[in-house]
Write a structure and sequence with these properties.
The chain is built from two helices and seven strands; from the N terminus they run βββββααββ. It is of the alpha+beta class. The chain has a five-stranded antiparallel β-sheet with strand order 2-1-4-3-5. Strands 6-7 form a two-stranded antiparallel sheet.
Length: 167
């Protein structure tokens, strides 16, 4: 099977759907994000599957990874992306990226560290961020709880000595 994919690394001059070989163990649908090798250096880039069909598979690079289980774009949205690409001065992937929800590229990661000055059995002070001494938790309107460091005011500048007149 062959997949026609719009890749993120394509500039306007070389913007077109590129053909990639779909391994037999992989199931692709139009509208799914994938990782594919691109250019001579085989740099891994993100792409969106535009269509899947039969064709000649020789000399094609394989799709490396599927990023979504379900399609993130419907067939109607893919048709709209094709229309906007022809109408506006942008690449296919730029149009697709504008249609996708912004949270697809973010991933929550928790990290924990042990500090030498406190035991891990001690509880952090109320309102403090764990693992970051001198920081406080603040409720953010957009991002939930976040840690912030209370920055002290800079010390006042020293006053210059008074001028003595008549010297």
């Amino acid at each position: 099977m062959i997949a026609r994919i719009a890749v993120s690394a394509a500039t306007f001059a070389i913007d077109k759907p590129y053909s990639y070989f779909v391994p037999p163990s992989m199931h692709l649908q139009p509208g799914v994000r994938v990782m594919v090798p691109f250019s001579r250096s085989n740099r891994r880039v993100e792409g969106v599957v535009l269509e899947v069909g039969e064709g000649r598979e020789e000399n094609l690079k394989p799709v490396e990874q599927v990023l979504d289980e379900e399609p993130v774009l419907s067939p109607t949205m893919l048709q709209l992306a094709a229309f906007l690409r022809g109408r506006c001065f942008c690449t296919y992937f730029d149009v697709v990226r504008a249609m996708l929800p912004g949270g697809l590229w973010f991933e929550a990661k928790d990290s924990y560290t042990l500090t030498p000055d406190r035991s891990w059995e001690e509880k952090p002070p109320r309102g403090a961020c764990p693992g970051k001494p001198g920081t406080k938790r603040k409720k953010s309107r957009f991002w939930g709880w976040r840690c912030r460091r209370p920055w002290p005011l800079p010390p006042p500048a020293p006053k210059p000595p008074p001028c003595s007149e008549g010297s």
